[in-house]
């Protein structure tokens, strides 16, 4: 089985001990080399198979400006997928501005829509009611709607964003009405977006999904004479979180997507739109390591390893039951000896980074590396139990740069006027 791409890095015990000696634990560490590799791989695969493409990095996955700036420097045409005014603002600070961004909200407030309109972002609307709210504010020249095709898939039920139980998108049976309203209101340029779930590792899912989207594109062209300037396949591209998972081969994935895409437009003698994607986890997920220190061990009805990172630092295991590989720093090959739960210090019984995990022997003070923590790690962290948020490090080779200082209790109280 292939090892984690940062497996050998975990063997560098002196490096990680020097990091935690200077910056403390818990600590998020991101590999710049891996980040650049991931975005270049995606861009190359799209460029090889599509006449025109646009990558909008999903800001919510990891919104640290230093990472976004590194991505933008690598791919100058990079755009941003934003779900809030704050994410549009962060994108702007990183040089991703105006129509390089796509704004996809849901149940958007007038203030949210106003901000997206003022900044010139492509506005991707979640519902017909969203269009009515936007129209009272003002209308852009182009618009897209988020299609809910009636199905979805995700690594967990909580991250499936298409289908009858999803709060997202315009139902497929209402999508023509949405575009008709937009066209009759004076919109002259159009796109369409479809995001049906996160963490999908089935390579056949994406070519099948584009075929379903193209059926809607055909209906819009035939009934309303609307031609799409761009079609966004959304995000959701999974990464391996276990040794048994196989990574997506993006060259194969987009080759197969392109075959369905090209046949459709060539058979209809129509100009091909640009293909957009909105990757987050596949760009930044496996770049991130959460370093945490063993704070205690307990033998009770079960055996526990207590660490100083809990659900306030990494929410995914408590929220979804997500699995993250965890290694002993300096000895990732250490053989497991005991079945344990690895838990943080939060006063909730859901505070587990791992359950019933076979794990090597460790002692108080040892460092553990929680892998694949680059996406939806820091961005979902919180201050529950008044635990300040942790620091973040950008690692270029073995050279660290502090890209977010550790929060303090004073920082937490700053807005309280006490």
Q: What features would you describe in this structure?
A:
By secondary structure, the protein is an alpha/beta fold. The protein has two domains: 7-29 and 286-416, Lyase, Ornithine Decarboxylase, Chain A, domain 1 (Beta Barrel), CATH 2.40.37.10; 32-284, Alanine racemase (TIM Barrel), CATH 3.20.20. It has helices spanning 7-10, 13-23, 32-49, 65-74, 85-93, 110-119, 128-137, 175-184, 205-224, 250-267, 281-284, 316-320, 409-413; strands at residues 27-31, 53-58, 79-82, 101-104, 122-125, 142-148, 170-171, 189-193, 228-232, 274-277, 288-299, 303-307, 326-328, 338-343, 352-359, 367-370, 391-396, 399-404. Strands 1, 11, 12, 13, 14, 15, 16, 17 and 18 form a nine-stranded mixed β-sheet that branches. It has an eight-stranded parallel β-barrel with strand order 2-3-4-5-6-8-9-10, surrounded by six helices. α6 links the parallel β4 and β5. α3 runs parallel beside α10. The mean pLDDT is 95.
Inertia-based shape: globular
The average pLDDT is 95
- Considering the protein shown, what is the CATH homologous superfamily of the largest domain? Alanine racemase
Estimated radius of gyration: 23 Å
Number of structural domains: 2
The biggest sheet amounts to: 9 strands, mixed
Query: Which residues form runs of ≥5 with pLDDT under 50?
Result: none
- As for the CATH topology of the largest domain, it is TIM Barrel
Q: How many DSSP helices? A: 13
Total strands: 18
What fraction of residues sit in β-strands? Answer: 15-25%
| Helix percent band | 25-40%
What is the correct CATH architecture of the largest domain?
A: Alpha-Beta Barrel
Cα end-to-end separation: 55 Å
- Level-1 CATH class name of the largest domain: Alpha Beta
Structural class of the secondary elements? alpha/beta
**What is the quaternary state of this protein?**
single chain
């Amino acid at each position: 089985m292939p090892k984690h791409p940062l497996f050998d890095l975990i063997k560098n015990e002196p490096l990680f001990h020097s990091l935690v000696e200077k910056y403390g634990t818990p600590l998020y560490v991101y590999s710049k080399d891996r980040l650049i590799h991931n975005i270049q791989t995606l861009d190359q695969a799209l460029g090889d198979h599509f006449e025109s493409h646009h990558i909008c990095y999903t800001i919510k996955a990891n919104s640290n400006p230093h990472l976004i700036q590194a991505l933008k420097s690598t791919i100058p045409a990079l755009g941003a997928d934003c779900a809030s005014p704050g994410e549009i603002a962060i994108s702007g600070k990183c040089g991703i501005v105006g129509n390089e961004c796509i704004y996809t909200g849901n149940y958007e407030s007038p203030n949210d829509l106003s901000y997206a309109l003022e900044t010139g972002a492509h506005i991707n609307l979640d519902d017909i009611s969203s269009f009515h709210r936007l129209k009272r504010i003002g209308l852009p020249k182009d618009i897209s709607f988020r299609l809910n095709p009636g199905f979805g898939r995700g690594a967990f039920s909580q991250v499936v964003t298409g289908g009858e139980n999803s709060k997202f998108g315009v139902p497929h049976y209402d999508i023509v009405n949405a575009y008709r309203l937009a066209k009759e209101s004076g919109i002259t340029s159009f796109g369409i977006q479809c995001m049906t779930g996160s963490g999908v590792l089935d390579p056949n899912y994406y070519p099948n999904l584009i075929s379903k989207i193209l059926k809607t594109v055909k209906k819009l062209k035939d009934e309303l004479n609307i031609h799409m300037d761009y079609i966004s396949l959304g995000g959701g591209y999974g990464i391996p979180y276990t040794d048994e998972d196989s990574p997506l081969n993006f060259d194969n994935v987009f080759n197969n997507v392109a075959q369905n895409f090209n046949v459709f437009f060539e058979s209809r003698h129509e100009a091909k739109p640009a293909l957009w994607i909105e990757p987050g986890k596949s760009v930044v997920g496996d770049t991130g390591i959460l370093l945490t220190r063993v704070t205690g061990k307990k033998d009770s009805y079960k055996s526990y390893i207590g660490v100083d990172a809990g659900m306030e630092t990494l929410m995914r295991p408590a929220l979804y039951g997500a699995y993250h590989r965890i290694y002993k720093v300096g000895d990732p090959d250490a053989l497991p000896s005991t079945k344990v739960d690895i838990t943080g210090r939060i006063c909730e019984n859901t505070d587990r980074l791992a359950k019933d995990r076979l794990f090597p022997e460790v002692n108080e003070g040892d460092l553990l590396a929680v892998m694949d923590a680059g996406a939806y790690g820091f961005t979902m962290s919180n201050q529950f139990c008044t635990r300040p948020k942790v620091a973040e490090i950008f690692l270029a080779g073995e050279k660290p740069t502090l890209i977010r200082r550790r929060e303090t209790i004073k920082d937490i109280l700053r807005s309280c006027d006490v």
